Amino acid sequence: MDDTVAVLKEEVARLVEEVRKLTQLREEDILRISALEKSLENLKGVVADVVEHPVRDPIGGMVVSASEDKSLRVWDVDSGECVCVLEGHSDPVYCVDSADDIIVSGSLDKTVRVWNSSGACLQVLEGHTDAVNCVAIADDMIASGSDDRSVRLWGLDGSSKAVMEGHTSYVSCLTLRADVVASGGYDDAVRVWALDGACQHILEGHTSYVYCVALAEDNVLSGSGDKTIRVWGLDGTCRQILESHECWVRGLAVRGSLVASGSGDKTVKIWTTHNWQVERTLEGHTDVIHAVACLA
């Protein structure tokens, strides 16, 4: 663990110096980043997931991390301080998402927990019979995907809205918005679900595990171990196959007309939805990339 922290600190220092050169960061901004780097060392265990949490709107915002130490932490990026520790899961926490003042987490303990930003657990959602690998929150709904091969839809009040069954292996990823759920699994398939639990489409074509999914306008995007990203219409048709990565695609993020993908080939690629071409390839990582996110 000490070696890992040392490597991460070295990488952070290098990236900070590059950013300083590119953006002429003020000295106080560099101090904020250094403080955050130091504070993050307090999170023992492997950090399994991290998400920006819009609890308030300071310069740096808030970040929530989920860890194998069974806890979540809320960080103030401005000061680098951990402002809250969320404890209650009895096994490693694999995933986290947030919206407004609500945080949602999923764990190996088979539960989904709903928290407020002060650390109070508002709901414990029970129903999955195996580890929860992915969660998403949109409006007043929560979606969760599990090793039990199901996707579940919940209300913020803890009510069970739908159980979506059909994947023939682990559900590894999902995305949610007010009108649709999309999930991907180790059965190499993507499924599109109505909010009542009905499977609208089974999107088949990948030849390896589906590691990540995202929604972009009227498209579902999926990244796979077969090195490709597929662009699907909500009608179930495959509109594009994006081939540029040289290894599996583990992360997808969308911001407006831009899509970011991260891969085992150590690169991040930026695509545009206008023509689905690579706009830029970002190189610098010295090992595989597991996740990407777009900042405002």
Overall description:
The protein is mainly beta and 296 residues long. It is 12% helix and 49% strand. The protein is built from 2 helices and 24 strands. The chain has helices at 2-23, 27-40; strands spanning 47-53, 62-67, 71-76, 81-87, 93-99, 102-107, 112-116, 121-125, 132-138, 141-146, 150-155, 160-165, 171-177, 180-185, 190-193, 199-203, 210-216, 219-224, 228-233, 238-243, 249-255, 258-263, 267-272, 278-283. The chain has a 4-stranded antiparallel β-sheet. A 4-stranded antiparallel β-sheet has the order 5-6-7-8, with no helix packed on it. Helix 1 (2-23) runs antiparallel to helix 2 (27-40). The protein is globular, with a radius of gyration of 19 Å.
Key phrases:
globular; mainly beta; four-stranded antiparallel sheet; 296 residues
Total count of helical runs of at least 4 residues: 2
Alpha-beta classification? mainly beta
Low-confidence stretches: 19-44, 55-60
Ends distance: 32 Å
Radius of gyration of CA atoms, rounded to a whole number:
19 Å
Main sheet, how many strands, which sense, barrel?
Answer: 4 strands, antiparallel
Helix percent band? 10-25%
Give me the oligomer status: single chain
Helix-strand string:
HHEEEEEEEEEEEEEEEEEEEEEEEE
Q: How many β-strand stretches?
A: 24
Strands in their spatial order, largest beta sheet: 1-2-3-4
Q: What's the shape?
A: globular
Whole-number average pLDDT?
85
Strand content: over 45%
